[in-house]
Write a structure and sequence with these properties.
The complex is a heterodimer of chains A (about 260) and B (about 300). Chain A is flat and about 70 Å long. Chain A is mainly α and about 260 residues long. Chain B is an all-alpha fold and about 300 residues long. The chains are: A mainly alpha (about 260), B mainly alpha (about 300).
Amino acid sequence: MLLIDKLSYQSKLRYVNASEKLVYALLTLVLCVLSRSVKVAVLVFAVNGVLTVGKGGIPLFRYIKLFMIPLAFLAAGTAAVMINVSRTPMDAFALPAGEWYITGSNEGIRRGLRLCVTALSAVSSLYFLSLNTVMTDILCSCRKLHFPPLLTELMLLIYRFIFVLFETASSITVSQQSRLGNRGFKTRIRSFGKLGSSLFILALKRSSTLYDAMESRCYDGSIRVLSREQPAKAGEIAVIALYGAVLVLVWLLCG
Amino acid sequence: MPKKKKILLRAYIVFAAMFAVAPASNAMHIMEGYLPAGYCVAWGVICLPFLIAGFISLRNKVKENRRNLILIAMSGAFIFVISSLKIPSVTGSCSHMTGTGLGAILFGPASVSVLGIIVLVFQAVLLAHGGLTTLGANTFSMAIAGPLVSFGIYKLCCHTKVNRKAAIFLAAFLGDIFTYCVTSIQLALAYPSEAGGVAASAVKFLGVFAPTQLPLAVIEGILTVVIMIGLETYAKPELKSIGFLRDTPGKQPPCLHERIFAGQRTANDSCRELSEVSRDRIGEAKHPYPIDRKEA
């Protein structure tokens, strides 16, 4: 159902300390966005690729396919950055359309390309985190970083319930399809509406029974689970710090 | 026409054709790393007061009755699931609901702001829609601005006795449109056009995303109506028994979240009756899905 979630359980880097991975991903993300330099972006993209596919063992095919998800937005957004409509033609290209020109400047194209590279390498950092870290581990390290307990509790519950509801939704969808519920556009709309409303009713009902079950097991507002401790290794921290320093150097020296 | 221009023209045609068949038209999540750092922080700061207000209101609800925590979490999961299911679309492309309108009508804008940011984090990490650096901007457009407009319009229509279906449709539709406009303006502020500044750039972004977002908004409006009608049909006896949904003509029923979080009655009572209702419905063979045969 959720491909990224499934892959994260298979990753070979799964049992590396979660806070380390979180810090690494956020560090590269921030440096990418802050520097906006092509060199930093390419370096980050390459290292993330090697780590995720080489070290983490995520199939390359899946990894490439995942980059297709944000592509539609990237193409549309970058086109809007690069292309201008104006009365005066600009230096890079100009296509006359009546009195106006569909035009763009060299500076604009350069800006658009830089934006593409930065965004893609930022996505690769996000993928490093989400493909190699299980969500519950992320939430655990959020708790250690002193997020409001209500918020982490809510996130843990929501994460669990997502799968419960997904299962319900998919079985409803299967039964709808087996009864030709997706025959035409109108039936599809009606089916989806019924799916939504019964899903909501079921969710309400299930939340109530769940609470009863949890309270009978002494639930007092927080779920405490034993997490397997993977202590952060000094060597790994040093490598991350060094890598961060290298990125900053590349940013400052080569721009 | 010189040769270079011809090549460019061809490239444009290919590019345009690519857009015509662009497979994924997601809700307007700004992708990871697309906004400059300053804008990421600024939008995050703008979101803060709304989030704090939402957080306090959630905390009060949980203090009132701890059972509400589970209910709220279930609502959040519901928004996530409904927004990640493929919805029917005219062109056959794969698109998703935003769920902002539905969430705002069901749970109110305060809860949706906090639920929205959690759902957006999950969407970024689990579905790669949106991102962590653009979380602030996305939260503002999809979890704050859109729901506020939806909720306002729904309330307004409730008071002015507009047809219920029309009210729900307008709330969801305009909420979606507003989200799309806000996102375009966010992008335009970050990337003003070289010819014409922010305004021209906003028009460009609006134009680029219009072909996917406008049909999506219409479909989302229709779906929200169908879902709400379904809810009111199947959960009506229960709502009546609480005493909120009356048959007296001219009196509009209050929004569902008020009934759910009404306070005196715990969610458990409502849900127990709800399950009885659905059981009855199965007896009448009216409900399309065997809701709880196993438990029953």
